[in-house]
Amino acid sequence: MMTPMIESFVMHFGEMGNKWGFNRTVGQIYALLVMTENPLTANEIAETLSISRGNVSMGLKELNAWQLAATIHKPGDRKEYYQNKGNIWDMANRVFEERRKREIDPTLTLLRDILLDQAANDSEKYAQSQISEIHDLLENITHWTQSLQSLSPEKLNTLMKLGSGVGKVLDMRDKLLMKKEG
């Protein structure tokens, strides 16, 4: 059922999914749903990916928990069908949001707790200053990504196309400010 091109993508996406916070099989199931125009049954997914029906059920549950898959019912058909939910931007936002919850938020909590402790000596004071910088960076990144996530895909595309142009604008602004001060 899969062409070599689609199979290559599905297998690679499975490996990438593992890096994004879900296992290889879940990544492959999701990639198959994205690459397939029509909704699939669990049996079709299992057959196409050569995995057990149980693994498909567990993978679909996880994709539903991530809000990446939708269950479809066809009139007159008792089978459940599955398709990807939303578009690629929705998927990216959900992955970012889950990673933030799983990785960034606990780290920020730990850093805040450490910064609330009284430093016992100069070594701990230095460590807290380093931790404060890390905390501030993560806070800024979190606020920035949340702002990006609130943009429409069209505005986000425009922003990404600006790319290094934004850096050039900021460099020009800095030069103008230096001339004003000097």
Structure summary:
The protein has 182 residues and is mainly alpha-helical.
Descriptive labels:
mainly alpha; Arc Repressor Mutant, subunit A; three-stranded antiparallel β-sheet; 8 helices; 74% helix; transcription; DNA binding; DNA-binding
Fold and architecture overview:
This protein is mostly helical and 182 residues long. The chain has two domains: 4-86, Winged helix-like DNA-binding domain superfamily/Winged helix DNA-binding domain (Arc Repressor Mutant, subunit A, Orthogonal Bundle); 87-153. Helix content is 74%, strand content 7%. It is built from eight helices and three strands. The chain has helices at 4-20, 24-35, 42-49, 53-65, 88-116, 122-149, 153-162, 164-181; strands spanning 40-41, 69-73, 80-84. The protein has a three-stranded antiparallel β-sheet with strand order 1-3-2. Helix 1 (4-20) packs across helix 2 (24-35), helix 3 crosses helix 4 (53-65) and helix 5 runs antiparallel to helix 6 (122-149). It is extended and about 75 Å long. The model has no long low-confidence stretch (mean pLDDT 91). Belongs to the GbsR family. It holds the Pfam family MarR_2. This is HTH-type transcriptional regulator.
> CATH homologous superfamily of the largest domain, by name?
Winged helix-like DNA-binding domain superfamily/Winged helix DNA-binding domain
Silhouette: extended
The main pleated sheet reads as: 3 strands, antiparallel
* Residue windows where pLDDT falls under 50 for at least 5 positions: none
Report how far apart the termini are. 69 Å
Structural class: mainly alpha
CATH class of the largest domain: Mainly Alpha
Query: Which strand order does the major sheet show?
Result: 1-3-2
> What's the number of helices?
8
The ordered H/E elements are HHEHHEEHHHH
Question: Mean pLDDT score, rounded?
Answer: 91
Radius of gyration, in angstroms, nearest whole number: 23 Å
In total, the number of domains comes to 2
Strand residue content:
5-15%
Q: Give the strand tally.
A: 3
Q: How much helix is in the residues?
A: over 70%
**CATH architecture classification of the largest domain:** Orthogonal Bundle
CATH topology (level 3) name of the largest domain: Arc Repressor Mutant, subunit A
Domain HTH marR-type: 21-79
Organism: Brumicola pallidula DSM 14239 = ACAM 615
Family: Belongs to the GbsR family.
Pfam family, one: MarR_2
